[in-house]
Structure formats: C-alpha cells, structure tokens
Amino acid sequence: MPIAMITGATSGFGRAAARRFAADGWSLILTGRRSERLEALEQELSDNVEVLTLTLDVRDAEAVARAVEALPDEFRGVTCLVNNAGLALAPQPAQEVDLADWHTMIDTNVTGLVNVTHAMLPRLIATGAGASIINLGSVAGSWPYPGGHVYGATKAFVEQFSYNLRCDLKGTGVRVTDISPGMAETEFTLVRTKGDQAASDELYRGTTPLQAEDIAEQIFHVATLPAHININRLEVMPTRQTWSPFTIDRD
Ligand SMILES: NC(=O)C1=CN([C@@H]2O[C@H](COP(=O)(O)OP(=O)(O)OC[C@H]3O[C@@H](n4cnc5c(N)ncnc54)[C@H](OP(=O)(O)O)[C@@H]3O)[C@@H](O)[C@H]2O)C=CC1
Ligand SMILES: O=CCS(=O)(=O)O
Q: CB of 109 within 8 A of CB of 59?
C-alpha cells in the first residue's frame, strides 16, 4: 500500500486528509504536537490501515531529521508528503502585532515546512515516479488583505519554494503541488485569534466556507493522479468568497 506522511494531522485539513487517504487503504504517518489527538486518530483509523504517529514540532529541525531517520522499514517508502502544518496569528494591522507572532508564523510555515521537506526528499526520490509533495499554501500568498502581513508572506514563500523544488526534482519523478485554499472552517481562526471562539464563529457565520473535507479531497486527488501529471498550483475558494477592489486613502 502507498504511504502518506501528513504534518498537522491533529486538526482541520490534515486530519481530514488522513481520513481520506485511509478510506482508500493508504498507510499513514501522522504528525502534530498534540499526542492525545494523534492517539485518537490512530485508534479511529488503525483497524483498517497501518498508522504511525509521530509527536513532532516541525520547527525543530533536529527532531524532524531524527524522526525521519528512525522511520521503521515498513514506513520508509513514502509516496506522498503533505506539508500541511501551519498557522496564522495576529489578525490585527502589522504595526500592532507582537514580533513573536511573526516569528512563530515564519518558524512554522516556512522553516518547519523546509525542515520536513529536507528530511523527506531522499525518501521521496527513492520512491520515484508517482511520489508527490503537496504543500499547503493559501490565497493569502497571492492576494494581499489587511492583517495578512507575515502570514501571506509565508504562503508566498510556499508557492515559490514549490515551483523551485519542481525545477530541481526534474528527472526524479517526484511531483510538487501548492494547494492554496481560501476561507475554510477549521481551527485556523481559533488559533489565529488565540482562542476566541466567538470571533471564529462570526467569520464563518451566514456564508458557506470550505470544509476540511473539501480540501482533503483535493489533496487526495492530486496525490493519486497518474504519475505523468503534475498540478503546479491549485487555488480553491468557496463560491461565496471573491476579491475586494483596491482601497484608496483620501483626505
Ligand atoms: N483554514 C483556512 O482557511 C486555510 C488554511 N490554510 C493552511 O492549511 C494548513 C492547515 O490549516 P487548518 O487545517 O485550516 O488549521 P488547523 O488549525 O485546524 O490545523 C493546523 C494543524 O497544524 C499543526 N501545527 C501547527 N503548528 C505546528 C507545529 N509547530 N508543529 C507541528 N504541527 C503544527 C496543528 O497541530 P498541533 O497543534 O497538534 O501541532 C494542526 O494539526 C495551514 O498551513 C494553514 O495555513 C490555507 C488556506 C486556508
Ligand atoms: O489561509 C487562510 C485563508 S485566509 O484567511 O487568508 O483567507
């Protein structure tokens, strides 16, 4: 059975993707920091598929490298890496945020993604044709909005890193895709607002956001395309989300 490694499998897109891959019998390497959630997911899925859970903070390059190095033989032949772990913080204007929140976003969305990719590249190249790296970018990486500041910039990094990886992986068979969702109802806004459930509920109220399962389906689709097809970037929005016009500061 093919193997998917999913970072940030304790919630949202990552957990839904784990369930989607499991439904088709894939073996799973599931990572995240909250071990109790990993254990619950392992319990849920392991009757039907092989599951290995790794409690891992993607920001810790050494821990990531050690965990990948120590993968048991039956989990070494990874077919698909889903670089999903990530977060936004500090929705207020740039001039009002704590520097620490900017650092956390860069450390997680940029450094963390790079840490996991670096550790996993030899495994994916060994798998060769049909292997894929699926990076979770965001519409925020392409479209500016107030309060997007460093979050959007980290996702712009994900897009360009994905394209550049493709160049270097030419000839290895390893595909690279940036999946960039728009508004999706997960724990994302709860994290962004540091636990403000009312603010999270308000954002999604009266509209129809994407659900985690919608993006999980896209991830699974991209991972299971014939080996000669590479989707470079997939931007996915809810039908009820579009762009705003430019704004003008007037006297
Ligand atoms: N929801 C949305 O509107 C959109 C989200 N995205 C992106 O999709 C990805 C998933 O987000 P989503 O599912 O919505 O959000 P959730 O908050 O529901 O899930 C985020 C996941 O990332 C993990 N994570 C966060 N920090 C770390 C870390 N340092 N080390 C390891 N794992 C970490 C969390 O696990 P744990 O806390 O257990 O470590 C959790 O499993 C993110 O990269 C996000 O930026 C992109 C576009 C839209
Ligand atoms: O990445 C998340 C989607 S949004 O909040 O930037 O629209």
A: no
